Amino acid sequence: MSATTDTGTSTRRKSIQRWGGLLLATVVWWALYLLNQPFWDWLVGRVFGLDLTSRLGSGVNFFFLDTVKILLLLAGIIFIVTVLRSFMSVERTRALLGGKREGIGNVLAASLGVVTPFCSCSAVPAFIGFVASGIPLGVTMSFLIASPLVNEVAIALLLGLFGIGPTLLYVSAGLVIAILAGFIIGRFKLERWVEPFVFETKLRGKIIDSTAGLTWDDRIQMGIEEVASILRKIWPYLLVGIGLGAAIHGWAPQDFFAKYAGADNPFAVLIAVLVGIPLYSNAAGILPLIDALYAKGMPMGTLLAFMMATVALSLPEMILLRRVLKPKLIAVFVSVTAVGIIGVGYLFNAIL
Amino acid sequence: MNIKILGSGCANCINLEKAAKQAASDLGIDATFEKVTDYADIASYGIMRTPGLVVDEQVLLSGRVPTAAQVKELLAPLLG
């Protein structure tokens, strides 16, 4: 046998292994997802002997049910999104944004913010990298707002807990807020409130694309590592969020929140956003809570606003951004985003 | 050989440093290691995603943590 045939066969075998493995994983995932509810109903209801309609029974059932469901959703979506995003890079985003005027630049930046892989630890280098290469401040802000606001964890959970409708609403609202906020910040010509060193940073050296040369095995590996890393980071938040959600599910009277924070309370959205802004949680911790609140009568608009406020603006991120933005700009950034979120909350309450 | 690890102290940067040190010792390279944590310096290399690996002022990798084997592959062509 010639050497080429050997290599050909082994590459094909690896390829079959890889795609076969993925197919198997998908089937197992679906099986677990569909069997989740019946399993816990059986275990908690029959084996533990709890009455599923009682407070304790339904609370405990909800806790296990939601934990497994959310873990499955997170693993699935994070994996898929990471693999997809491995085709995109921040460097390519910067190249795409270079030279675009405001307006169209904001739209492009916000859309790219959603699809580009980005973690908040890179917020500062990315900001400097964008601005120093000539991308307008407002356009950069659109990217920086869209990226944490429309994140895959939130999308995964919204999809699983509420379906495609609220998920699409969330994504479009996030994009619109990012575009408008960035545009407004750009209009006000706030470059003077950026730390001067940012504009003086000289970009030297060859710009390399961090995603060049990745094989499929590399991408799958990255997907698996990202799932592990995110789950490792958020599992405490998740348990607390689910625990709170389970408590509300079991103990709060039905329609409790509809009475006090329902659609006819004009301050509900405002309070929800003001509470959400300083809260630091990622979407995984907040969404189980939101699931339970929704079941108890809180309107979707208020809840989405609360979630966005918690996820998009956080104290640690503001502290990080202080290195490149003067406090006044940070204040503008927070207020414009907050107003956008509040507006979205009222709008959704009105139309849903 | 001068090897710089760019990053502000998150776990990824520490892992990159470990992988790079492992690769360097496996290849028998006598390299000086530096950690660059200042954002302005990091950005000046054109890096937008930490961690970053810079060898003799050339950016070799950014945005992910490679295995020691992958770092070796990157370093090998630069030897002698």
**Helix and strand string of chain B, N-terminal first?**
EHEHEEH
User: So, CATH architecture of chain B?
Assistant: 3-Layer(aba) Sandwich
- Integer count of domains of chain A: 1
CATH superfamily of chain B: Glutaredoxin
Main beta sheet strand tally, sense and closure of chain A: none
Computed Rg of chain B? 11 Å
Oligomer: heterodimer
SS strand fraction of chain A:
under 5%
Helices of chain B, by number, come to: 3
The helix count of chain A comes to 16
The largest beta-sheet of chain B arranges its strands as 2-1-3-4
- Rg of chain A is 23 Å
Summed up, what is this model?
Chain A has 352 residues and is an all-alpha fold.
Explained architecture:
The complex is a heterodimer of chains A (352) and B (80). By secondary structure, chain A is mainly α. Chain A has one domain (90-351). Helix content of chain A is 76%, strand content 0%. Chain A contains 16 helices and no strands. Chain A has helices spanning 3-47, 55-85, 90-97, 104-115, 123-132, 137-149, 152-162, 164-187, 197-200, 216-251, 256-261, 268-276, 283-295, 300-312, 315-321, 327-351. In chain A, helix 8 (164-187) packs antiparallel against helix 16 and helix 14 (300-312) packs antiparallel against helix 16. The termini of chain A are far apart. The mean pLDDT of chain A is 81. Chain B is an alpha+beta fold and 80 residues long. Chain B has one domain (2-78): 3-Layer(aba) Sandwich (Glutaredoxin). Helix content of chain B is 39%, strand content 24%. Chain B has three helices and four strands, in the order βαβαββα. In chain B, strands 2-1-3-4 form a four-stranded mixed sheet. Chain B is globular and about 30 Å long. The mean pLDDT of chain B is 81. At the A-B interface, helix 3 and helix 5 of A face helix 2 and strand 4 of B.
